[in-house]
Amino acid sequence: MAVKVGMVSLGCAKNRVDAEMMMFTLKQAGFELVRNAAYSDVAIVNTCGFIEDAKQESIDEILDLVRLKNSGRLKAIVVTGCLAERYQKEIMKELYEVDAVIGIGGNAGIADVIYNVLKGKKQEYFPQKTDLSLCGGRVMTTPFYYTYLKIAEGCDNHCTYCAIPMIRGKFRSKPMEDIVKEAEEFARYGVKEFIIIAQDTTRYGEDLYGKPMLPELLRRLCRIEGSVYFRVLYCYPERISDELIDVFASETKVLKYIDIPMQHCNADILKKMNRHGSKESLSALVRTLREKVKGITIRTTLMTGFPSETEEQFEELSEFVEEMKFERMGCFAYSVEENTPAANMKDQVDEDVKKHRRDILMEQQERIMAEKAKGSVGRKLRVICEGYDRMTECFFGRSEMDAPEVDGKVYFVCEGYKPRVGDLLRVNITDTLGFDLMGLGEPL
Description:
Blueprint: E1 4-9, H1 13-28, E2 32-34, E3 42-47, H2 52-70, E4 76-81, H3 82-86, H4 90-94, E5 100-102, H5 110-118, E6 123-125, E7 146-150, E8 152-153, H6 164-168, E9 172-173, H7 176-188, E10 193-197, H8 206-209, H9 214-221, E11 229-232, H10 242-250, E12 254-263, H11 267-272, H12 279-292, E13 297-304, H13 311-324, E14 328-333, H14 351-374, E15 380-389, E16 394-399, E17 410-414, E18 424-433, E19 436-443
Parallel strand pairs: 1-2, 1-3, 3-4, 4-5, 5-6, 7-10, 10-11, 11-12, 12-13, 13-14, 17-19
Antiparallel strand pairs: 8-9, 15-16, 15-18, 16-17, 18-19
């Protein structure tokens, strides 16, 4: 009987892709993959270690599995991912019930590690970070109609608050031919929406081709036949070139949606973050995008309470949010990450103040999004059907304006036909539900 392996993957979509590649390796090695790790023989926790809340979530998940192991329901626990890479020796020392800890460079060896732990051999396996392969098979964990395309690994930006470069290593692009081939294979399986991810997608290709190649990659991907489209996340504002903007404007298969993690707008705070720009330059970028790419949805992420952020600097950020009226926005309070330059900066902001400022911005954004939702009434939007909600007695899905897991929904009813999950249809927006939309669906 095959050994049952369950995977719990936490954190970002980039981590999810790593988990899918490990699952493919395990499947090829003859293991049986189970959806619920609680019903497995061996449970893998693919951890996140980006900020304090994510680290705590990873630890809580491991502790839940430890309880299952102590009750006799699990044979072994394997810890992978960013937390494993960052705290290589501490995990087994603090959680002795864990049977193996694997750094990100060891993902390809996951099958051998499991064979060894089932023989009673504890494993600590930390090859070079660059041993993490950018290419290989994957077992999809997303719904069949969308998936993530990770186009690069690591980061060279060295923002002072971020531990990713020390965890993931230097920026490495995946060859363009391999990305296109992967997308073509997924398209044959019915994937319609491809979400382009990396720590910094706008840096794609610099290491391989000597210049940023995201525009060319998107043009190549748009040649794939069929009803496929591409959503781009994690674009650094200073690297959004005129060429890239032109691709968003001209390529019909590139969604008019861009994710730009700006973090702040105050020039002094951005400089301390080792980031570029100012309120003026960021405002100019937003105006240019809206002028050249009609109907574009701009999503950003902001941070409150970075060391030395004054009340006046926060007010500038709040005014920026009010002026820009981003279609989508997330905000988090600065998290002190050990061994990062920002952790040793003077004038750390009180925890309650950081969170209060975050809450103020999110309340602003909720009001802005509710207003923008009302402005969508009367529009006809292309929507991908994701399911049926019994509470509202409506189907639901996402429009071009909404990325999975982080943005909103479109709820709709259909007269005369029943759409299937994954179908594309047109929805005439008739009402709002907070900042979600409601309408009447019809075949596309």
